[in-house]
Design a protein that fits this description.
It is built from seven helices and eight strands. By secondary structure, it is of the alpha+beta class. The chain has three domains: about 45 residues; about 30 residues, no CATH class; about 160 residues, Up-down Bundle (Ferritin), CATH 1.20.1260. β1 and β2 form a beta hairpin. α6 runs antiparallel to α7. Bound molecules: zinc ion (4 copies). GO terms for molecular function: zinc ion binding. This is B box-type domain-containing protein.
């Protein structure tokens, strides 16, 4: 969709001019000429439209007061707010600052470093988890195949009755399916978290490169709880992952009569 210059469109009678830039501080799309004027009159950072990442959500304005920019940050609540919100909701808070003050040296701040570290942690942990789970999916397939053969050969030795053999094989099939769907769920959870992480990483990279500390600060501040949720979920998935095994246990006294039992066991992955 072609965007038209916000500034030129505001002048009646002027024909629509194609916008080439977007101001990251106002959110406006502007043509080359207006971009030059806008930059001369402000310290705003604008970016060529072609360079804007997808899923860009600028988070400039207050969700309660649509005309007001999120220019303040309450340190007590650790959240961005507009001037009105500051007066209404944070009047008793000890520290509310203009983000121009807080955003200074944003790239060297603890928030910035924490954000980068959490992104890296998620990305590595999710890659590792997926490798482990995929390996487990293969080993479950092997376990299952091996047990099927064992049951089959027991049948040849007439240690397993025909009807019981069918039951065992049904049971094996069901347990294999259960294991596989548990593992598939881990994979799809990991992929969902991976998509979140990649999206935030792309935006973080973009905001880091635009050069505006304020724009970067707003981005970090407004998405860090999102990232921290993904971080916690990633840790839980990674740390709680239990490798699954299917066993076929033949009890001595059962060999001649019926055969054995099929069991699933779980083991925390050694790390
Ligand atoms: Zn224009
Ligand atoms: Zn602007
Ligand atoms: Zn507000
Ligand atoms: Zn507050």
């Amino acid at each position: 969709v072609t965007k038209h210059c916000y500034s030129c469109s505001a002048h009646e009678g002027q024909k629509a001019i194609t916008a080439m830039y977007r101001c990251l501080e106002c959110g406006y799309y502007v043509c080359t000429k207006c971009n030059g004027i806008h930059r001369a009159l402000s310290d705003h950072t604008s970016v060529e439209i072609d360079r804007l990442p997808k899923n860009l959500n600028l988070l400039i304005f207050c969700s309660k007061h649509k005309q007001q920019k999120l220019d303040y940050c309450c340190v007590d609540h650790d959240e961005l707010c507009c001037l009105e919100c500051k007066q209404v909701y944070h009047s008793k808070c000890v520290k509310t600052e203009h983000i121009d003050v807080l955003a200074k040296d944003c790239k060297d701040s603890k928030s910035f470093i924490d954000y980068r570290n959490q992104l890296d942690f998620c990305s590595n942990a999710l890659t590792n988890t997926k490798v482990l789970v995929k390996d487990n999916i293969e080993s479950i397939g092997r376990d299952s195949e091996q047990i099927k053969n064992t049951i089959g050969s027991s049948r040849d030795n007439k240690t397993v009755e025909a009807e019981y053999e069918l039951q065992l094989k049904e049971h094996l099939k069901r347990m294999t399916q259960e294991c596989l769907s548990t593992l598939q769920k881990h994979i799809s959870d990991a992929e969902e978290m991976e998509a979140n992480t990649e999206n935030l990483d792309r935006l973080f990279d973009f905001y880091g490169k635009t050069g505006s500390q304020k724009v970067l600060f707003r981005f970090i501040q407004s998405t860090k709880s999102d990232l921290s949720d993904t971080y916690k979920q990633t840790r839980a998935l990674n740390e709680n992952f239990q490798r699954l095994y299917i066993h076929y246990r033949v009890q001595e006294d059962e060999i001649s009569a019926v055969g054995g039992r099929i069991e699933v066991s779980k083991k925390k992955y050694p790390r």
